[in-house]
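Memo subject: From amino acid sequence to discrete backbone structure tokens
Action wanted: Derive the backbone structure tokens from the amino acid sequence.
How to read it: Take the token row as a discrete description of the fold.
Attached in line: The record itself begins immediately under this heading.
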Amino acid sequence: MAGQHKNKLNLDLLNKVWALAEQGAKGERDAARNRVEALVKPHGYTLADVPDLLLTEGYLDDEPEPSAGGFTFYDMSNPAHQRAYARAERKRQAAWRMANRAKIDEVLTRYGSEEAVFAHTAEEKAYDAAIKPFHKKGKAGQCDTWDGEHFSSTAKVRAALATVKPWPDTIPDAIAEYEYWEKLHADRNIADGNNQYNYLSQGADFRYWALGDLINKEIEARNISDVIIRLRFQEASQGTYNDSDAILRDLERLHAAENSQKLDPASGDISPARGSPAISTESLGAPEYRATPPSILNTASKRRAEVVRILNTPEGARMSLRQVAGMAGVSPSTVMKIKLHTRGSCP
């Protein structure tokens, strides 16, 4: 494999020849590219790998690296720091592409081309058309809205999306559609070098996140199998979806239904299962009064909105990326992307 031969490859020479291949006269470029190919081929690389290889190894990079503590928002007003951050991101992405070349090639082969990977599907176009009547362009420096919301679908938007395809009414069906959108998003992310952007169209993105809410808490579980599916979905989300009240409501309802079928032969009264006294939801209080810390941001949309809220405060302007990321439960790179996007558009 390539990694086994990397130490034997003369990277200094490769860097010099590659500069000629990129910037020399036409005849010089062709000769240099042939020489580059001859240099890297014995080590398992192709011409397409060379820029990422050199960037990963510290070449093509003449800007300072970010400090260990990252950037503060004050730093980001300095163009030199902005360039350093951008170069560090490119270096990270190059390393990811080098390590995941097989995945990238598989996606491109399956779709036929890079353009085909990112082309909006017929469903995406239909969902976008359905929500278009609710779209309102944001003012300068503000996000666009759909029925007054930036990141989540309102009841009206959900109803519009349902005109394209009805919402699933069982947890397994919702999981199947959710995984379809998740796979499409993952394929586009792989083809884009793991940039972690929002790769779905706006209508599809609303559909995707609403499906997550349906699975997380809104669709009633029909049986224990559904409860297990819901719980596994919450666990796999790593905190994005974590409505434990939904699990409790499912179990209480299913438990009560089971007990209602176990009538006492003598009196006909309902007899709880042995060793499992029935639980009263009233004894726990209504869901809205149960103790759920308000600091829990249990969807990605809420976390993005929290980042925007923090950035718009005087305190947030003085915080580092790492501090804001810790408060909102996201990565520093996500905060940076939102910070840069909100200067002229939206996160």
Notes: Residues 64 and 128 are 42 Å apart (CA to CA). The first strand starts at residue 135 and ends at 136.
